[in-house]
């Protein structure tokens, strides 16, 4: 794992955008594994800037997102589809039909999850996967547990994650309790991974990335098995390293 620590979130965002832009400049039809949450918002802003300056072209890229809340359709302002549209897709020349987010309203969620894995395979896998990290070490919605799921599946959110994400909803009881998430399989199969973390509340989870332990109780520790992970941090998130 390669750790990069910056003084500010702005620098974290600019550096992460640079890494992603490099992948696109080397492969114009790159498959981008994208994430939601507050961590990558600044990176998306930087990518839009690069696009507007004419130094980045998304026309041939495809994207596949990590997760989506069960029960929220793409028009709900807290759905991850809506997040991606408003934070990135609506502002760059990406063909919307090449952007994929799991369907949290599918009648048969299990079947939908299976199809999502087939879709990832049919795209030839993910060239670069962007990740945030939960304060408890979750990635996507792969929550700490005795065992983890390999493939895309429906996940129950932990109490801690519901609390952490409540800030985006009117109240805690409005936070969906389930989500469709990629399993750790497709994440670890991505050719390259960029994990972004900022703020002191991520310091504990970030610290778990540097010791000699891999545990499903802290899903992000599985990333230690991957040969090309860059962890981009501000100094608060790096404060326990
Ligand atoms: N499912 C998402 C994750 O994909 C995200 O990485 C994490 C951190 O979010 P944030 O970046 O807002 O701290 O929490 C959410 O629950």
Automatic annotation (TrEMBL):
Keywords: Carbohydrate metabolism, Hydrolase. Residues 10-224 form the Glucosamine/galactosamine-6-phosphate isomerase domain. It catalyses: alpha-D-glucosamine 6-phosphate + H2O = beta-D-fructose 6-phosphate + NH4(+). Gene3D superfamilies: 3.40.50.1360. One of its GO terms (cellular component) is cytoplasm. Transmembrane segments: none annotated. One of its GO terms (biological process) is glucosamine catabolic process. Pathway: Amino-sugar metabolism; N-acetylneuraminate degradation; D-fructose 6-phosphate from N-acetylneuraminate: step 5/5. The keyword Hydrolase applies. The active site is at residues 67, 136, 138, 143. InterPro entries: Glc/Gal-6P_isomerase (IPR006148), Glucosamine6P_isomerase (IPR004547), Glucosamine6P_isomerase_CS (IPR018321), NagB/RpiA_transferase-like (IPR037171). The keyword Hydrolase applies. Its EC number is 3.5.99.6. GO terms for molecular function: glucosamine-6-phosphate deaminase activity; identical protein binding. PROSITE patterns: GLC_GALNAC_ISOMERASE (PS01161). Catalyzes the reversible isomerization-deamination of glucosamine 6-phosphate (GlcN6P) to form fructose 6-phosphate (Fru6P) and ammonium ion. Belongs to the glucosamine/galactosamine-6-phosphate isomerase family. NagB subfamily. This is Glucosamine-6-phosphate deaminase. It comes from Proteiniclasticum aestuarii.
């Amino acid at each position: 794992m390669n750790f990069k620590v910056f003084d500010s979130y702005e620098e974290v965002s600019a550096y992460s955008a640079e890494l992603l832009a490099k992948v696109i400049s080397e492969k114009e039809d790159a498959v981008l594994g994208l994430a939601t949450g507050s961590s990558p918002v600044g990176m998306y802003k930087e990518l839009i800037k690069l696009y507007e300056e004419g130094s980045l072209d998304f026309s041939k890229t495809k994207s596949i997102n990590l997760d989506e809340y069960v029960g929220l359709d793409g028009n709900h302002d807290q759905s991850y589809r809506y997040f991606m549209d408003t934070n990135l897709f609506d502002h760059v020349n990406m063909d919307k039909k090449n952007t994929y987010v799991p369907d949290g309203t599918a009648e048969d969620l299990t079947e939908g999850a299976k199809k999502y894995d087939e879709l990832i395979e049919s795209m030839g896998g993910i060239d670069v996967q962007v990740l945030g990290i939960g304060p408890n070490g979750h990635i996507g919605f792969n929550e700490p547990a005795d065992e983890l799921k390999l493939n895309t599946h429906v996940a129950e959110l932990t109490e801690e994650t519901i609390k952490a994400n409540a800030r985006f909803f009117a109240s805690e009881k409005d936070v969906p309790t389930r989500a469709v998430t990629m399993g750790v399989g497709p994440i670890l199969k991505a050719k390259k991974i960029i994990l972004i973390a900022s703020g002191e509340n991520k310091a504990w989870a970030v610290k778990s990335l540097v010791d000699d332990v891999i545990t499903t109780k802290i899903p992000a520790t599985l990333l230690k098995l991957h040969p090309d992970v860059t962890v981009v941090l501000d100094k608060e998130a790096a404060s326990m390293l």
